[in-house]
Structure formats: structure tokens, C-alpha cells
Write a structure and sequence with these properties.
Length: about 400
């Protein structure tokens, strides 16, 4: 076909070529697996907010992290002592960086381009240990960070990342789970109200290994945390759990990706959120890909949102892509709604006030996820944080 004929056919279909490339022949990315990847921020176009990956996010608030100069120096980090868990800073060209995954969008690529050293946590204990990593005092300057969590073969640990205070932070977290290892990683967001936190978590799970990834987002002005779990070895197990509570004006976003790329892998995704107050906005997008190589896969994802007052918005989008018919099972579910009147009636019939009954329902709704952490002190602290959230707006609860 000559160039003249091609231009004529393009015009017939109402398309006009522009100077920014041969856009008329470009096919938009339809699935998560097709997204371009790069560690170089220059490979990603500036974010407009119209892109599929950004269209639910208040991008105007993220300009410093998307387009500005980021401080990639060491973060103020405190690591609790735990036998068999080591902590060190490694150079950005270390071979242990880049094993779990690389960015699919501009914010993660900007953070990857800017960091100078990565914080490496290595687990070697075959008896379960718990290590708490606290990060606070970051102030409001735009920063980039990179963390690598590595679980040696047949090791077992619980790693808790606690975030608090003010911050403008964009980061990448890599999780490498060795063969036969059992690792739980918990990311807790209790930022100050003015904080902005963008995070991409990437995980690769070894043969017959297990990763439980738990997100608890309670604080921060804008929190966008996207975990990608790659089940790329036979018998790998991945669980992605999340609990979040959005108040007035708060944006909490989670985009979860489970990539089944080996036989007999298993995944479970459960995210639960509550919203109260004018302008509270939550976003959950769950992508599950079962590749042709992932025969015998067993997968299920679900998202539940509980609306406590008027003026809130919960976006919930589950996606399931299956490339093979030889699977054990796959499914997804999503629901957003108000209180179950039967639950409230039952509790009130037992002498509990309506306000307290509503609080009890919310506690049980969120604590189902928090109770999976496995560290009593952290669970108790987060339960108290949920109690505080509920105590801030009794009028809204009573009117839901």
C-alpha cells in the first residue's frame, strides 16, 4: 500500500495524523501484562490523568513526585533487632536489585531513576522471626526510595514496614521469596494528613514458597500502593490482603496484580475498605493473569467496601485474564454498600445502641484482615487506630 493510499483510508475513517507519532495505528494497552516496563523515567510520557493507570488518581497533587527532582538519599529508617534478619544499604548497581520486577508507570520509574542506595533486608532464619522497620521524620521534601526484602530458601519471617509522619515519598519495594520460604510482608500507612505516598511493590515467589502481602492504609492525604506478585515457580502461593479506612478528603488507592506463570500456583486476594466523610475516595483495581504456562492454577480475588456516610466514592474494578483452560479454579467478586440492616437489628435487639452496633460492624469488617498479620502488638495498635477513626465521626455513622 502506498503512503498516499494509506493517508486516504485514514481520512475516510475520520482520523487525522498528528506530529506526535503514528497514533492512528497504535493499539491501546488492553491488559496488565502488555504494559511497557522500564527503570528510566524518560521512557514514560508525562502523566495527564487520562491514562488507564492514572484516571482514578488526583494527579494534580503528585506533580513533585511525577515531574520534579527527587532526593534519592538514604531514608531515616529504624530496624528492630530480629535473629536471622540482616539490614544493610547497597549501591544501585548491585546485582540483587531488579530481580522481582521493574516499573510499569512513570512514578515508579522516577523513583527508580533517582535513588542512590537501596535498603536490603535479608531473612535467613528457618524459625519464624518478626522484624519491624519504622520510617518517619521524612519531612515534606520530595523523596525517592528503594527497598529489597529477600527471604532465603526455607526461611520464615514477618516483616512489618511502618510509615508515619509527613512525607512526599515515591518508592519501589522488591520482595524475593526463595524456594520453600514462608514470608509475610506488611505495609502500614499511618501517615500525617498532608502526606503523599506512591509505592510499587514487586514480588517473585519461589518453588513451593509462600508470600502473604498485607496492606493497611489508614493515614495520608494521598496513598497509592500497587503490589505485583509474580508466581513464577511451580507450587508458589501468593496472598494479597488489604484493609483501608478513608476519611473526608482522603484518597486511598490500591492496584493489585497476581501473575500466575507456573504450574499449580495458588493466589487469594481480599481487600476491604470503609469510607466516611465528604470527598473520601478509595480505588481498588485487581488484576489476575493466568498464563498458558500456569496449568492447575487456583485463584480468587475479592474487594468489599463499606460506605458510612454521604459524599464518598469507592471505585472497585476486578479483572481476570485466563490463557489456559486447564485450571483448578478462578473467580472474582466486588461489592460496595451500606450496613446490613439485619446485623444492626440483631445487635440492637441485644441491647446495643444503634451507634455502637454500627461501630461493631465496621470493626469486624476491617479486623478480619488485620487479624491475619500475626503480630499481636501490631494488630492491637491497628485495632486502636480503627477505633479512633470510628470515634471521629459518630454522626456520619449514625446517618449511614
Amino acid at each position: 500500500m502506498t503512503e498516499a493510499v494509506a493517508e486516504k483510508q485514514t481520512a475516510q475513517h475520520g482520523l487525522v495524523a498528528h506530529s506526535d507519532g503514528d497514533w492512528a495505528n497504535r493499539v491501546p494497552v488492553q491488559t496488565r501484562s502488555e504494559r511497557p516496563k522500564s527503570t528510566n523515567v524518560a521512557d514514560f510520557a508525562p502523566v495527564t490523568g487520562r491514562e488507564a493507570v492514572w484516571k482514578y488518581t488526583p494527579v494534580a497533587k503528585l506533580d513533585a513526585l511525577l515531574n520534579g527532582e527527587l532526593d534519592g538519599g538514604r531514608l531515616p529508617v529504624s530496624v528492630g533487632e530480629a535473629p536471622g534478619v540482616s539490614s544493610e544499604w547497597i549501591a544501585r548497581d548491585d546485582a540483587r536489585i531488579g530481580r522481582a520486577g521493574i516499573p510499569e508507570e512513570r512514578a515508579a520509574a522516577a523513583a527508580w531513576s533517582a535513588f542512590s542506595e537501596a535498603h536490603l533486608l535479608r531473612v535467613a532464619s528457618e524459625e519464624k522471626v518478626t522484624a519491624v522497620v519504622s520510617r518517619s521524620g521524612l519531612d515534606a521534601s520530595p523523596r525517592a526510595a528503594h527497598t529489597v526484602i529477600e527471604a532465603a530458601p526455607h526461611s520464615e519471617a514477618l516483616i512489618i514496614l511502618e510509615n508515619s509522619g509527613s512525607a512526599q515519598l515515591s518508592e519501589n519495594v522488591e520482595i524475593v521469596v526463595g524456594d520453600g520460604a514462608k514470608l509475610t510482608v506488611v505495609s502500614v500507612q499511618q501517615w500525617a494528613d498532608d502526606a503523599i505516598h506512591l509505592a510499587s511493590h514487586y514480588a517473585t515467589v519461589g518453588r513451593d514458597a509462600s508470600l502473604v502481602h498485607i496492606v493497611v492504609s489508614l493515614g495520608g492525604g494521598v496513598v497509592r500502593l500497587n503490589p505485583s506478585i509474580h508466581l513464577d515457580h511451580e507450587g508458589a502461593n501468593g496472598e494479597a490482603l488489604g484493609a483501608y479506612f478513608a476519611d473526608a478528603g482522603q484518597h486511598l488507592e490500591h492496584q493489585v496484580y497476581l501473575d500466575h506463570d507456573a504450574p499449580h500456583t495458588r493466589s487469594r486476594v481480599t481487600y476491604k475498605g470503609a469510607l466516611q466523610g465528604e470527598g473520601a475516595h478509595t480505588v481498588w483495581i485487581g488484576d489476575v493473569l493466568i498464563r498458558n504456562s500456569a496449568t492447575g492454577t487456583d485463584s480468587y480475588e475479592q474487594n468489599r467496601n463499606l460506605v458510612l456516610s454521604e459524599g464518598t466514592r469507592a471505585d472497585s474494578i476486578p479483572n481476570l485474564e485466563i490463557e489456559t483452560g486447564d485450571i483448578a479454579g478462578a473467580g472474582h467478586a466486588s461489592a460496595t454498600g451500606r450496613f446490613d440492616d439485619e446485623h444492626i437489628f440483631y445487635l440492637r435487639s441485644r441491647g446495643i445502641s444503634e451507634e455502637e452496633a454500627r461501630k461493631l460492624v465496621v470493626r469486624g469488617f476491617l479486623l478480619e484482615v488485620i487479624a491475619q498479620i500475626g503480630d499481636p502488638a501490631t494488630e492491637e495498635r491497628l485495632q486502636a487506630a480503627v477505633e479512633a477513626e470510628l470515634g471521629e465521626s459518630p454522626t456520619a455513622l449514625g446517618g449511614a
